[in-house]
């Protein structure tokens, strides 16, 4: 929830960090001091939570870009896009003379007795003008381009930063080799003959590590 709507309240991540900092330590204290230690289970990754978190991250990018664009348009640059996209029209010149009049629509004559002007891009019948749809297209294009830019940067970081550091990967390969070698030695001890080379022992690596852990215990 915080990730998706962080643009609406930027201090929310700080409060979430403080809350999690206290909550994790309180839960750890209860787990260590007040409950029986649970039996650990071996797991290669976080399982189904990885695609769920990835989906939430994508939704968060789209949501935050849309919220930021909406807030920025309303508070700072409400006239920036209409001004740049309408600067070549004949309704006002480059000195912006007549721009305010250009941004105000006239209410249909049959709806009111007096002339009423309001801020919108509509014609005399109350329908949206072509410039209104052009403006919506430009705003939507900005959101799409900015969102793809963020996704591209995230993808680039994902490609440059390895999931497993090189040193850790080497240690994992060494542990797997030692596990295969220990399993072969165990086979030699029980059968008296080593039929397979340690480097080509077949089988699941997790099962081999479980056998070695059981043998040590």
UniProtKB/TrEMBL annotation:
Keywords: Membrane, Transmembrane, Transmembrane helix
Domain Anoctamin transmembrane: 1-175
Main location: membrane
A Pfam family it matches: Anoctamin
Cellular component terms per the entry's GO annotation: plasma membrane
Residue ranges crossing the lipid bilayer per the database entry: 46-67
Membrane topology listed for this record: Multi-pass membrane protein
Molecular function GO labels: chloride channel activity
Cytoplasm recorded as keyword: no
Localization per record: Membrane
PANTHER family: ANOCTAMIN
Similarity field: Belongs to the anoctamin family.
Protein name, UniProt field: Anoctamin
């Amino acid at each position: 929830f915080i990730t998706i709507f962080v643009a609406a309240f930027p201090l929310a991540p700080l409060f979430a960090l403080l809350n999690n900092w206290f909550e994790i330590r309180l839960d750890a204290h209860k787990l260590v001091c007040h409950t029986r230690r649970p039996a650990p289970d071996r797991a290669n990754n976080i399982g189904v939570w990885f695609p769920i978190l990835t989906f939430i991250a994508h939704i968060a990018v789209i949501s935050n870009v849309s919220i930021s664009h909406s807030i920025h348009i309303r508070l700072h640059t409400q006239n920036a896009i209409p001004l740049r996209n309408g600067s070549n029209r004949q309704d006002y010149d480059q000195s912006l003379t007549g721009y305010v009049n250009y941004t105000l629509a006239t209410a249909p004559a049959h709806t009111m007795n007096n002339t009423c002007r309001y801020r919108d891009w509509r014609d005399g019948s109350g329908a949206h003008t072509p410039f209104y749809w052009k403006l919506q297209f430009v705003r939507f294009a900005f959101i799409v381009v900015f969102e793809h830019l963020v996704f591209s940067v995230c993808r680039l970081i994902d490609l440059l930063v390895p999931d497993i550091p090189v040193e850790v990967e080497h240690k994992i390969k060494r542990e797997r080799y030692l596990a295969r070698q220990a399993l072969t030695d165990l086979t030699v001890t029980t059968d008296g003959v080593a039929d397979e080379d340690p480097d080509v022992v077949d089988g699941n690596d997790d099962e081999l590590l479980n056998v070695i852990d059981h043998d040590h215990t």
